[in-house]
TrEMBL record:
Residues 271-302 are annotated as: Disordered. The lineage of its organism: Bacteria, Bacillati, Actinomycetota, Actinomycetes, Kitasatosporales. Residues 293-302 have a biased composition (Basic and acidic residues). This is Transcriptional regulator. One of its GO terms (molecular function) is DNA binding. SMART domains: HTH_XRE (SM00530).
Amino acid sequence: MSSELGDFLKARRGELSPAAAGLPDDGRRRVPGLRREEVALLASISPDYYTRLEQGRRRASEPVLHALARALRLNEDERAYLFELSGKDAGRPGRRPTQRVQPQLRRLLDDLTNTPALVLGRCTDILAWNEPAAALFTDFALLPQYARNFVRLVFCDPTVRALYVDWDYMARACVAQLRMEAARDPQDPRLTTLVGELSVRDPDFRTWWGDHRVAVRTSGTKALRHPVVGELALDWSTLTDTSDPDQQLIALTAAPGTPAHDALRLLGSVTARPPVSPRPVAGPAGRTPDTVDAGREVLPEA
C-alpha cells in the first residue's frame, strides 16, 4: 500500500505547477510539477520526512495528511483517497462474502417500468437490472457472469462502448471510480483480477490507471447514442442502500416533454423480445466463457 501512496503523491506533485502552488519558477526545471523539497516546504515538514513518505519508509500522521492535501491542492475526492491510502493497517481483511442484491432494491427496480436502472456492487459489478436498462445498454442476461461488470463493459464490450458520445470522458470517470475502490481494499482478488485484465487488454485503461486520479460522483448527465432511438441525454442519480453501502442503485431519467423522455418510452415498448442465443463475449486469456445465466440477478465472483 505504501507504493500506492508514493505513486499518488508523485503523480499529484508532478502535475501541480509552481505558479498554481504560489511558488516562483526559475525556468530551469528538468521535470514538470513541484520538486519534493517544494512540497515539503508548502506542507511545513522536512524534505527528508516527505521523501520517506514517497518511498514508503514512513507513515504520515493525520495533521501531515491535512498539510499535504492543502499543499498539493487536492480536491475532496483526492483528499479522501489520500486518507484511505494512509489509514490502512498492515493486515488485510479476509475474502468478503459474495454480494446479493437487497430485496428492497430488487422491488424498486421492478417498479421502474420506464426508467433504466442498475444495482452496482463492489468493483462496479452489476448485481441486478431492470428491462429498460437491458434495452438501453445491453441484455445483461446474455452475458457470462464475469462480464457483468460496468467498467469492464465500458472498455471491452463494443455495444456498450459505442453508446457513449464522449467515451473518453466516461471511461476516465470509470477508472477514477475504480481507483477509489482500490483504496478501500487494494488486495481484493476480484479487483486485482479486473484491473490486471483491463490493463493488459486496453492501453487507455493502463495509462489512466497510472494517473492515480480519483473521483466519487453521485449524479450527472450521460450523452448516449442508441442504435434504436438515436441520441439522448439522460440524467442519472445514485441511491445507496443503508443496509449495505457497497450496493448502489443507479437510475437514468429525463424531464417530461423532452426528446430523451419520449425516447425512453419508445425504448420501453421494445423491451419484450423473444429469446435469442447468447452472443460471444471475449473473456480473460486462457479462460472458457461461463455458462449464460438467463436471470436478472447476479452473484459476482468473490
